[in-house]
Design brief:
The chain is an alpha+beta fold. Among the domains are: 143 residues, no CATH class; 150 residues, 2-Layer Sandwich (Heat Shock Protein 90). 50% of the residues lie in helices and 15% in strands. It has 10 helices and 11 strands. β10 and β11 form a beta hairpin. α4 packs parallel to α5, α7 runs parallel beside α8 and α8 runs antiparallel to α10. The radius of gyration is 53 Å and the shape is elongated. The two termini are 63 Å apart. The protein binds adenosine-5'-triphosphate and magnesium ion (MG). Adenosine-5'-triphosphate (ATP) binds next to α8, α10 and β11.
């Protein structure tokens, strides 16, 4: 960049400077122009010069610029070396311009002077504001003036000096910048290596608002996510083991008691053992289902369905089960509403029966449950609301976590593993919907499911 800059500046300067010198030279001819004009006025035409080179040269030689001192025509005195005055060359033409000038008449016809092809510098000759002719000067291509050449040389030197300084400065600046950038990149690289080695607690210093600073921040949040996932995974495995251990130890105790003859293998005992195994099977199946949906491997056969149909079916299925526990499952107030969605009917059935099952399980005798259907411009909303008891406000966001139960001891009795709502959440999200829990207006829990409406 510096080389290009200096090169072009040098070229431009040379061009401009040459032109400047030429113009200065031309302007110095002012006296010649006025002399030509006066002579023309006296003579009345250019005839006295027409094609007469000798006359022209004499005319030129007789010219003197008032501003330029006349050349020293006196011969120098003989010097010590014995040179006589005749040995010196004659004094030069006062203008040095004899062979570079040309005179044209008002109609641009040649009068007298040099012949040349180059584009001339032109000055007009006027008498009483009337053009009487043109003086053309052939521009001096090469700069002969020693002062001018020295000046140009000086300029060149200064430019090279400035260029070298700029180069040194920019190398230094680039080095500083690269060092700073490399430092951050090295930090990120070592961080990534540590992450790859499983050290999820790794964090790197993230300063600066540039792209590398942002990258460092993203790196840190990635490390944090990985760390959180790792903790969650360990917790998850611990929870599952715990969940499996309880029914297994019950089974083992019962079986050992039978083996030892402490208990009689009555049909009731065998029936109880069998239902324990069934509960265990359900738990394992739920876990399997969750892991499938986590891996994105759960199959969904989506089609255009009406959510109302599924909810009505659930309502009919559960009404007697609710009644047997002394709870009322209310009729749906708008059973003809059209709620078209693009969804898997079997999964939606599973979702709503999970919600109904919860309401049935976690509502006090004498209470009720109400299912409402609602349609907005772009969504379908289904809400399950029941009467007391509810869950504490702080527990609401955790309800959808795996294996989360509000009161472990109480739920144990009702055989809940705390997976139902986690499965519900997965199903809803697989349909692009949302699921929310809040306190219902009847003193119990309210679960609201929202799906995108299928627009015809
Ligand atoms: N309608 C409800 N009213 C009050 N509490 C509820 C209601 N539904 C859920 N809960 C609370 O939320 C917890 C989590 O529910 P979730 O359905 O995920 O698990 P679960 O019912 O205990 O077990 P699972 O559904 O796996 O058999 C329940 O243990 C219960 O304490
Ligand atoms: Mg449940």
């Amino acid at each position: 960049m510096i080389a290009v800059m200096i090169g072009s500046a040098d070229w431009l300067f040379r061009q401009g400077f040459t032109e400047y010198l030429q113009q200065v030279e031309a302007n110095r001819l002012g006296f010649l122009i006025s002399n030509l004009e006066t002579t023309y006025q006296k003579q009345g035409s250019w005839d006295f010069l027409q094609n007469d080179q000798r006359q022209w040269h004499e005319f030129l030689s007789s010219q003197r610029d008032k501003d330029i001192p006349p050349p020293d025509n006196r011969l120098p005195p003989p010097d010590d070396n014995g040179f006589s005055p005749e040995d010196y060359p004659p004094p030069p033409d006062a203008l040095f311009l004899g062979n570079r000038l040309r005179l044209l008449d008002a109609n641009h016809n040649y009068v007298v002077g040099a012949h040349f092809e180059e584009k001339p510098i032109i000055r007009a000759l006027k008498v009483n504001k009337q053009i009487i002719g043109w003086l053309e000067i052939r521009p001096n291509e090469v700069m002969t003036d020693e002062l001018a050449t020295t000046f140009i040389q000086q300029q060149k030197k200064a430019k090279y000096l400035i260029g070298s300084l700029a180069l040194i400065l920019s190398i230094f600046a680039a080095w500083l910048l690269a060092r700073q950038l490399l430092l951050t990149i090295r930090r990120i690289v070592s961080g990534v290596k540590a992450l790859a080695a499983g050290e999820y607690q790794t964090r790197i210093k993230a300063n600066g608002h540039d792209e590398l600073g942002q990258l460092s921040q993203y790196f840190n949040s990635l490390a944090q996510t990985l760390q959180k996932n790792e903790v969650a995974r360990r917790q998850w495995i611990a929870d599952i083991s715990h969940e499996l251990r309880t029914p297994l130890s019950v089974l083992r105790g019962e079986l050992e008691a039978l083996q030892d003859g402490v208990r009689e293998p009555t049909p009731e005992r065998i029936q109880s053992l069998h239902s324990e195994v069934l509960a265990l099977t359900t738990l394992v199946e739920d876990l399997y289902e969750l892991s499938l949906s986590d891996a994105g491997a759960m199959n969904y056969h989506k089609e255009n369905i009406n959510v109302t149909d599924i909810v009505l079916e659930i309502q009919q299925q559960f009404v007697s089960r609710f009644a047997s526990r002394g709870i009322t499952l209310r009729e749906i107030s708008n059973p003809h509403i059209q709620l078209p969605v693009f969804a898997d009917a079997r999964r939606l059935y599973q979702l709503f029966s999970n919600l109904a099952e919860n309401s049935c399980r976690y509502t006090n005798e004498g209470g009720f449950c109400e299912i409402t259907l609602y349609r907005t411009k772009q969504t379908v909303i289904v809400t399950f609301q029941d009467s007391a008891p509810s869950v504490p406000q702080t527990a609401l966001p955790k309800l959808f976590d795996r294996l989360y139960r509000v009161e472990k001891s109480r739920s144990r009795e009702s055989d809940g593993a705390g997976l139902g709502l986690a499965i519900c959440k997965n199903i809803v999200e697989a349909h692009g919907g949302t699921i929310l829990a809040y306190q219902s207006q009847y003193g119990g829990l309210s679960i609201q499911v929202e799906f995108p409406l299928l627009l015809e």
